[in-house]
Known about the structure:
One of its GO terms (biological process) is one-carbon metabolic process. About 45% of the residues lie in helices and about 10% in strands. By secondary structure, it is of the alpha/beta class.
Amino acid sequence: MTEYTPKERLYRALKKMDVDRMPAVCFTQTATVEQMEACGAFWPEANEEPELIAKLGEAGHTVVGYEAIRVPFDITAEAEFFGCKLKAGTREQQPSVVGHVAATPEDVDKLKDFKFGGDARVDRVIKSIAILKEKYGDEIPIIGSMLGPFSLAQHLNGDNWFMGLMTDDPVVQPLIDMTTDFCVRYAQEMVKAGACCMVIIDPTASYELLGDQFYEKFAIPYHKKIADAMKALDVPTVLHICGDTTKGIYLMDRAGVEGISVDQKVNVKAASEAAKEAVIVGNLDPVQLLWKGTPEDVKAECAKVYADGARIVTVGCGTVSATPTANLKALVEFAKESKY
């Protein structure tokens, strides 16, 4: 079988095409303190400056050995772009959203006329991708990631979001339409800068929280708009939703994404059987296994997850910043030793 470049291998694996082996990649947050120490780029500054974002993202490749570079590292830049107040992050922890800006349809109207190309943090993420693209060209794939439209709408609206879904609050529809439009355009800007794979991180758009009816109404159509926009650019998309999404995989599969990233609570065998279109990626436990386990534990669990049907074995949620590099390298080694 032909030996592929990392970019070709990732594309082909997500497209269910023949490939020589599993790509060694991570679709969720990649950065750790050990990587920061190795490359000299630390949070919180490495969440802010394009050169540092690129440098820390690159450490996943140069220090750990991932065959892709994934940026950014947190899921607050999108809400910050629209004016939400943040609690600052630290070297070990990410920032969080603590203030909201869209309680009414009138508030949403004020947010619709957004533009890229300024100096907001999302613009700096785009610049970091351009920096990485200039350095690596087509040698190493660059994975762009963003908060999904449902969770972004919740960040903008606040604690009333879920109640608003059930009570037909008039802010709900215009808000999720607007956040979806933002996500599509943000993804397009990242691809224009050099990203060749897109990840939608939509943690609160969970089947566990929403159930069939609300997930089908408020998640699938909006994820599909992003996936369709990426298909038009021949860019594969991976969707990650936190929690036990096992029973909702058949619905996630309708979104048109190439990959469904599942966390450690998911039954991978059941998920692989339920997904008819997308491939299942995941679902190594980032805490008990990758942070607290050993390289031998990691390889053993990789083998189990692979046998259960994951096409790409990788981290099941965001990597804990204290994770030892040795454990992540064990994941990379397993991928490079695998055969399809």
